[in-house]
Structure formats: structure tokens, C-alpha cells
Write a structure and sequence with these properties.
Layout lengths: L3 E6 L2 E5 L4 E5 L8 E10 L3 E2 L2 H4 L2 E12 L3 E7 L4 E7 L2 E12 L6 H10 L1
Antiparallel strand pairs: 1-2, 1-4, 3-9, 4-5, 4-6, 6-9, 7-8
């Protein structure tokens, strides 16, 4: 079974797999910057929904560039009154490429990190 994750970016949720390219609302990061996305769900052999387990999931993406979306035309019209207004809008977007989705085995505690340093 293919591993995928549902991530939340800018108030929207997206289904992503490794290698996917994704258009999201404009982010402040520069081109080439690594971004960590917040997972809402991870699906591998079974689904991971628990917030404690999701804290161990890492979804890493790289900013490929910034783009502008397709132009949308908006027309306001009231019949028999001579009222017409035409407007256009283009969204500012950021293209992300998903580099890796992985489940960390466990997080190291401060005590465990200290013991590992003492042993070395």
C-alpha cells in the first residue's frame, strides 16, 4: 500500500505523497527553502489520527517557486438599471514539492539524550 498524508497548509487540507507537486496559498519562505508541513492524518498500513502519534510524523517539502493563479473574471450586473461592473482577480500561489513523509520511531527525552552522551 502506498503511504500518503493529509496535511494542513494555510487553512486548507491536501492529500500528498512523496514526489508530489502542490500549489498552496502564498508562503513567506524563499525559493529553495525547506518547509515542514503539519500532518492531520498519515496512512500507511493503517491510519494514524492520534495527535500524540502525529507529533512523530515528519512531512518535509521544498519551495519550488512562487506563481500567480489563473485570472478569474467577476461580473456584477443589474438588469434594467444600466449597472455593470467587471473585475478580475489572480491569486498569489506557492509551488511545493513533497520530499519525504516519514514516521519517526520515537522522540528522545532530555534524560535519554543525556544518557546517550554519557555512554559515548
Amino acid at each position: 500500500m502506498l503511504m500518503y498524508a493529509i496535511v494542513k497548509v494555510g487553512g486548507r487540507q491536501y492529500r500528498v505523497e512523496e514526489g508530489d507537486s502542490l500549489l498552496v496559498d502564498r508562503m513567506r519562505e524563499d525559493e529553495g527553502a525547506k518547509v515542514e508541513l503539519r500532518p492531520v492524518l498519515l496512512r500507511d498500513d493503517d491510519a494514524v489520527l492520534d495527535p500524540g502519534e502525529l507529533a512523530k510524523v515528519k512531512v518535509e517539502a521544498v519551495v519550488q517557486g512562487h506563481e500567480r493563479g489563473e485570472k478569474i473574471h467577476v461580473l456584477k450586473f443589474k438588469p434594467k438599471r444600466g449597472y455593470k461592473r467587471r473585475m478580475g482577480h489572480r491569486s498569489e500561489l506557492t509551488r511545493l514539492e513533497i520530499k519525504e513523509i516519514k514516521m519517526m520511531s520515537r522522540k528522545r527525552t532530555a534524560k535519554g539524550a543525556k544518557e546517550a552522551r554519557d555512554r559515548a
